[in-house]
Amino acid sequence: MGPIPLQRDTVQRPGSHSGRADARPVARTSLPGNPLAPSAARRFVRAALTEWTGLGLPAAVGFSDRLADDATVVVNELVTNAVVHAGTTVELLFRMEEATEDEAAALVLEVADHHPARSVRGERPGPLTAADRDGPAEYGRGLRVVATLAERWGITYRTGLKTVWARLPVDDWTDSPDPAAEPELHAAELLAPSTRRAVRDDADWAGRGALSFLAEASDLLAGQLDEDIVAALAGQLLVPRLADWCAIWLQGDGGGRAAAPRLVRVWHADESGGTEQLRTALESEPPRLPDEAGNGAVRIPWPGNEGEGTALGFRIVSGERTLGAVLLGREGAARVPYEVTALVEDFVRRVGLAVGAARAYTRQATISRILQRGLLPSKVADIPGVTSSLVYEPSDDGVVGGDFYDIFPCPGDRWCFILGDVQGSGPEAAVVTGLARPWLRLLAREGFRVGEVLDRLNRLLLDDAMETAEAAALMVAAAGGQHLAEEGGKHLREDGPQLPDGGQPRFLSLLYGEMVPLPGGGVRCTLASAGHPLPLLLRPDGTVRPAAEPQILLGVVEDVAYESQSFDLAPGDSLLCVTDGVTERRSGPLMFDDGDGLARALAGCAGLTAEGIADRIKRAVHEFAERPPDDDLALVVLQAQ
């Protein structure tokens, strides 16, 4: 999400006779109801504070680092509530109120969502009591933080809108009116490069500073899918804010202590030479931290012969596994304050979660790549008299996709092509793909006609799902759950086969066809579509028409007789086959194929080669929305010569 522009209102101040409108600091924006909204809201608030400070307004003199931290934490909690419990677009208004005779200057945050029937996290009838603020509660901690930091807060209901607001007084947090005083770490610069401060104010990390730091660090680390990048970000966050240097080791993913740790990142506040000297001193001796220490701080010897101070080690843990270690040091310090060590412990726990998530993603992505290579043909056949072009782009989510394709020869001078899409993704989709493609080849080569191939594949999918469900029921019965097994058998007979984990049946959409070359050029094409986006036929004059009739998905019901359509693909004619990753590509509420969008795009491809058509359609799909496609994208173009 890019920079969010500030919208500032202007009003005529009471008593002003100059005829000019003075700026009243008000910033407002709309945020999407997704996990990116809280971090965008924090950036928005910081940008507003920076701009208002530059205006030289009287109330802005009272802005302090602590006030900025408070505003950041409050907007994070309010926007998170709106996203989690409403999921709609979030309207954020941030304004500064000048001091009056009755009230001090204040910052006011208003966060509105469009689901007024849903409660916010932590909301319950009646005022918040002292026990609510101090003790754990079942309804969450989010608004207890807001109640602690804000002078006042509340909830306003309007038709179709719920607004949660909080008021933070400005003058209560004015740390120093002296403009020459040394600046502290500002929330707006929390994650930006900063020079080392001459004096660290460790007391700041005991409360609001720690909350803001951990909130930002969590967002930054959680979005990374590479463990080395997690380590690099962790080092940048620790130095120089909390330590003069740090080093991060990660153990290999082979498991436990048997995997030798590697020194991934070394950071030193003295970038001119301190980093390399520290790396040299640390590479010779990897850290060995006792298991009984958990992920708490362990005092370790100061590395090398240069300098002296306090060095601490923290184990990086995810679940029950040790993933590595973080070492940090403060030069010339006899001890590291408890506030800092407690904050680092919390931070290292987040590093462990991020490293564990990155490793899980890497393992899943590796498995998916291997499965994908095994489930798809290494090469498709060339059909005599036909040029073909294939585009296949799996979604970038690290999970094996459900789209598959194939072109292969069959006896009788026939050439068969398939384009399928299994419902869902991951291992279940891989199982169905691994069954469907070999079955299709076998049935086609046995000489069954197009409709008969789909009939038999439908029966095979239903039989396989039934056998899987029956096997699961037998396992339950063998474990002593006879009643559950009988109930499962009843539902199996009444509702059809279900996957053993309670999922849906193995639905499959499929486009299957065969081509036979004609003596005078072109091919005779026979095909059928089972719950699949219909293939489109493009004539050289730019006319486009569907080349099949819609029919039910495979693997849904038993008594289906699939029918096929036959037509001649004359020289210059092109057949476009796609999966729903093309037709259902979204841009807001719109889909690519709304209003026959795919047919319109194909009509503009008249005169292009098969490769040119495939490239044009792929580009149109990508350009339809700003975000990358979130589904597998597959298309096949077959053009008669």
Short overview:
Helices cover 34% and strands 24% of the residues.
In terms of topology, how is this protein built?
Elements (H helix, E strand, L loop, with lengths): L9 E2 L10 E2 L2 E6 L5 H19 L9 H21 L4 E8 L8 E8 L16 H5 L7 H8 L2 E7 L2 E9 L38 H15 L4 H12 L6 E7 L9 E8 L5 H10 L14 E3 L8 E10 L2 E11 L6 H38 L10 E8 L9 E8 L3 E9 L4 H19 L4 H29 L3 H14 L12 E10 L5 E8 L5 E3 L5 E3 L18 E5 L4 E5 L1 H4 L2 E2 L2 E2 L5 H7 L6 H14 L9 E8 L1
Antiparallel strand pairs: 1-2, 3-4, 4-5, 5-7, 6-7, 8-9, 8-12, 10-11, 11-12, 13-24, 14-15, 15-16, 16-17, 17-20, 18-19, 18-21, 21-24, 22-23
Structural description of this entry:
The structure is a single chain. The chain is of the alpha+beta class. 34% of the residues lie in helices and 24% in strands. It has 14 helices and 24 strands. The protein has helices at residues 37-55, 65-85, 130-134, 142-149, 208-222, 227-238, 274-283, 338-375, 427-445, 450-478, 482-495, 580-583, 597-603, 610-623, and strands spanning 10-11, 22-23, 26-31, 90-97, 106-113, 152-158, 161-169, 245-251, 261-268, 298-300, 309-318, 321-331, 386-393, 403-410, 414-422, 508-517, 523-530, 536-538, 544-546, 565-569, 574-578, 586-587, 590-591, 633-640. The strands form six sheets. It has a five-stranded antiparallel beta sheet with strand order 3-4-5-7-6. Strands 9-8-12-11-10 form a five-stranded antiparallel beta sheet. Helix 5 (208-222) packs parallel to helix 8 and helix 6 runs antiparallel to helix 8 (338-375). The radius of gyration is 32 Å and the shape is globular. The model is unreliable at 1-23, 121-141, 172-199 and 481-504 (pLDDT under 50).
